[in-house]
Every structure is written in C-alpha cells, then in structure tokens.
Amino acid sequence: MKTNYIQLLLGGCLLSLCFTACYKDRGNYDYHEINEVSGIKGINDKYALLYGDTLRIVPEILSTEAGTDTGRYTYQWEALIEGTARLADDAPIVVLGRGRDLVCPVKLRPAPYDVYLRVKDKQTGVEWFKKCKLTVQSAVYQGWVVLCDVGGGTRIDMVTRLGDDDKLITDVLAFTNAGMPVRRQPKQLLFAYRPAAHQFYLRSAEGLERIDGEALTWKSTYNIRYEMMSPAGADFAPDYFYNNASLPGVDYVIAGNQVFHRSMMMGASAFGAPVNYVDEEKTPFRPAPFVACGMGGALLYDQDRQRFVAHDPMFGTRCSSLRDGSLFSYNTGRDMVYMTYTGYNWGDVYAILKDKAGKFYTYCMNVGGSGIKQVHYTEMTGAPELDKATAFSVSNQLGYVFYAAGSRVYEYDVFTNKAWLMADLGREQVSVLKCLLFNPYGKEFYVNLSNSLVVGSYDPSRPDTENGAIRVYSVPARNEQLQLTWSHAGLGKIVDLAYRER
User: Fold this and answer.
1) What residues contact 232, with CB distance under 8 A and at least 6 apart?
2) Angular region, 304: left φ>0, alpha ψ -120 to 50, beta rest
3) Which residues pair with 157 in a beta bridge?
4) Which UniProt key words apply to this protein (predicted)?
5) DSSP characters for 442-461?
6) Which are the contacts of 171, defined by CB distance < 8 A and separation ≥ 6?
7) Are 233 and 255 in contact (CB under 8 A)?
8) What are phi and psi of 345, to 5 degrees?
9) How does DSSP classify residue 223?
10) pLDDT (tens place) for every residue of the chain, 502 residues total
11) Which residue(s) pair with 171 in the sheet?
12) What global pTM score does this model have?
C-alpha cells in the first residue's frame, strides 16, 4: 500500500508540472532600452599637482540617447589614497566636488590618489564611473637630493620632479625654511628607509643629524645624540651611517672605534651598546667604515686583524667570526677599500681589498637568503688607473664593478677580469658613483633607476655654487657602452647624493 501511495503522489506532481509548463503567461512585458552613458571624455589618465594648486577637469558625458540633458545626472568626484601610501588616520574617501566640472584647490596631503567621477542617472538610478590617477606633491615631494660643498660649507640642492618635469632648487633647506645652522665639511647624505616616515641623514664636520623626509625640515633634537641609548656628548661625530632598502629600519653607526646598531623592525628606537666585539673576545675591534646588510646577515670588517666578521641585524649584541669557505679565507690580511650590498644575485656583497704589494681583489658574498655564503673571488688584473680610483659602485643587475679616476669612469667585469673605459667627462672630476637600491613595489621608474649607474661630478674651473652635474646611465649587457638617459647641471660641487622616492 505504501508503495502504491508514493507512486500515485509522484504521478500527481508530474501532471501538475505539465499543466504549469503549458500555462500561457498573459502579463504585459513591454521591454525598451534605457539611457546609458556610453563614454566619459575629457579626463586624462593621470594628473600631478603641487599641494594648493587647483585641479580643473571638464568632462564630456556621452549617452546613448542623443541630446540627453546632462542635468539629469548627479555627479560626485572622490579621492582614495593608494594603499601603499595610506596612514592610519587617512580618511577612506575624500569628496572633491559634486558638480560635473571639477574646480578644486587641492588640500590633500602629498601622496598618490585614485580619483573617481561617479555619474548617476536620476531617472533610472544607474551609475557609471571614470577613474584617473592624481599625485599631490609638495615642491620637495620627489627627486634627487644632492649634498654639495660650497666654499667648504654644506649646501643641499634638489632636482625635484613634478610629473615628467624637473626643477632645480638650490639650497633646498633655505627654500623649506628648515632653520638648520651652517654646517661645515659635508661628508655623507643618505635616504634612510623606515617602515613609515622615511628620513634623510646628513653627516658633516658638526656630526650626524636627521632631516625630515617629508618637508625637508630640521630641529635641534634631530642630532643623532638623541637616538643613542647611552648619553653622547656634543662632540659626538660618527664616521659612517648605514641603511638600505633591503631591511628598512635597520641602521648602523660607526663612530671611531665603536659600531652601534638598532633594528626598528624589532622595536628598537635607539642605538644600544657597541656591537664590535667578536664571539667571546674581550677587546673590541677597530671597524672599517663600511657595512653591508641583507636578510642573511650583516658583514663588517675588522681592520686590526684584517678579517670579515658577521652580525645578526635583528638580534645581534656582538659580532661572530666566519668559518673559511672554499673560495677564500675571511682572514684576508688585506686593507679594505670599498664594500657594498647589491641587488645582484638577490643580495651579493662586493668588497674590494688591497694588499701590501698594491694588488686589488674582489670578494663576493651573498647575504640575501639564509646565512652568509661565498660566491666569487678574483684578483683585479688589467684594470687601468685602479690605484687612482676615488669612487666605486656595483651594478645591481649585472654585477659589474664601476670605478672612477679623475674624469674617467671604468667598468670592470670580475667574471672575465677585463676593464673598459665607459665615460670621460673631460674637465669634470667624478666625485660620486651610485647604483641605488629602492623599495618601489615594482614601479617601472625605480626598477630602471636601480639598474642604472648614477654619476655625480663637478667642474673645478667653474664656481662651486654651480659646477655640479648628475648623469644617469643605463648599463647594457655584454660590456657595451653606457647609455646616457638623464642629466642635470647647475648644482653645487657634489659630495654625495640620494633619491627621495615615492
């Protein structure tokens, strides 16, 4: 009986579905097309303005219904700060205007923004969007920041970039009304990477001090003494400051026979006790004025025992000795000439050392991964004027060593032991060579710049107020000639340079 009942019930359901399928829908469905915005013209893909300038955009609304009155729409212009530039107190959306045409004095803080025009049809309720990019800049938002020696005094010039245009600001700290007293004997300028709020550090005869990275302003409390855990006297004048983009917030200061370290990544806001002790040795070593640091560790050089030593950049309170590898001994018996961290091979360190006979050697170690590993070693033979070199750098992309002697720039290939003259600037003297590293999140401009060679020079026959020049060269493979991609002249006598990136 139960089986018959189930069969009867299923049959009734099927019959009901058949009648439903045959039912004629007698409703009134009069379909018609509605107005649509088929395009929005008159809006550029990107805009770059100085803070306080007026953003003017007059869009043209194209609709599918010819002659549609644009008054039938509502409009709203919105700005959203890009995620990588967002700070905790930034508003999620800023309304710039509610009319079709945008005339807006820009009061947004300097940063990159996504700007949206929202167009809504009041009759249908349908909404359309048009997006563009807006970069709000201060006059010192982005560009080359250059340390100059003008009559023995310190002057900082800036080639600031607005969109695709460059403008030279001589004595940029006077331009920003920074209020920093006169500094003598300029020595080093470095753009220090931080998890937030990047800073510049200036080293001169008066010591080491910070310059605000946003507005290029200064305070008396920006002296490095205020960043030391132990009290430092007014005469505290470090010999070297180190930071790079690979580990933002990891800093080293070398002052005389002491090395100080801090890791903001680990919560240390101040430099602690000196770390230039090796293993259980009781006597501190005398450091060379170089540090090279990556994820796998930091390398320093003990000038007393002429050896490389390692330091843990996150937690290390002292240094450790290194076990010799298959390529060379870390106890070199040689004097250090130059050392740098590079982007080549994901973190190779290049160190150039010189022996008592005047021969030069390149030691390559990788610190980009787990630990410190030897990767290459060679005597630098066939290198013209290497004994006269006053500046060095290493290509982040190809691993070539660049060095400058007088007006000439050479490229040395450590893998083939050959050298090439790449540039001769005539009367100008090359004072700076840089292959810069950035933290640019893959932006093409910075990728190209990190693969370039930057040359700072000056013409001693001209006044040191305006005899400096910057040149940027692309570095081709196969040891081909450098290609000049950008230059700017009219700066002071160049001592050092950095780039204020965004």
Assistant:
1) 224, 225
2) alpha
3) 146
4) Signal
5) T-HHHHHHHTEEEEEEE-TT
6) 155, 156, 157
7) no
8) 60, 30
9) B
10) 444 444 444 444 444 444 444 444 555 556 667 788 888 999 999 999 988 899 999 999 988 876 667 688 999 999 999 887 787 888 899 999 999 999 999 999 888 999 999 999 998 889 999 999 999 999 999 999 999 999 999 999 999 998 788 999 999 999 999 999 999 999 999 999 987 789 999 999 999 999 999 999 999 999 999 999 999 999 999 999 999 999 989 999 999 999 999 999 898 999 999 999 999 999 999 999 999 999 999 999 999 999 999 999 999 999 999 999 999 999 999 999 999 999 999 999 999 999 999 999 999 999 998 899 999 999 999 999 999 999 999 999 999 999 999 999 999 999 999 999 999 999 999 999 999 999 867 789 999 999 999 999 999 999 999 999 999 999 999 999 999 999 999 999 999 999 999 8
11) none
12) 0.84
**Residues with Cβ within 8 Å of residue 2, at least 6 apart in sequence:** none
Q: What's the token pair of residue 502?
A: 């965004």
Q: Strand 46-50 to strand 127-137: parallel, antiparallel, or no bridges (unpaired)? A: parallel
Q: Which of 359, 230, 353, 367 is nearest to 292 (CA)?
A: 367
Q: Which of 43, 160, 56, 34 lies closest to 102 in space, CA to CA?
A: 56
Give the tokens for residue 440. 């640019």
Query: 358 with 410: CB under 8 angstroms?
Result: no
Rounded to whole angstroms, the Cα distance separating 78 from 130 reads: 11
Q: How far apart are CA 226 and CA 269, in angstroms?
A: 10
- The CB density around residue 174, as the number of other CB atoms within 10 Å, is 13
**Which residue type is seen at 222?**
Y
Round to whole Å and give the CA distance between 171 and 192. 21
Name residue 291's amino acid.
Answer: V
Q: Tell me which residue has tokens 């940027």.
A: 472
Find all residues with CB under 8 Å of 138, minimum gap 6, and list them. Answer: 50, 51, 110, 214, 215
In this structure, the chain runs to a length of: 502
Among 314, 286, 279, residue whose Cα is nearest residue 301:
286
Q: How far is CA 487 from the centre of its chain?
A: 19
Q: How does strand 94-97 pair with strand 102-105?
A: unpaired
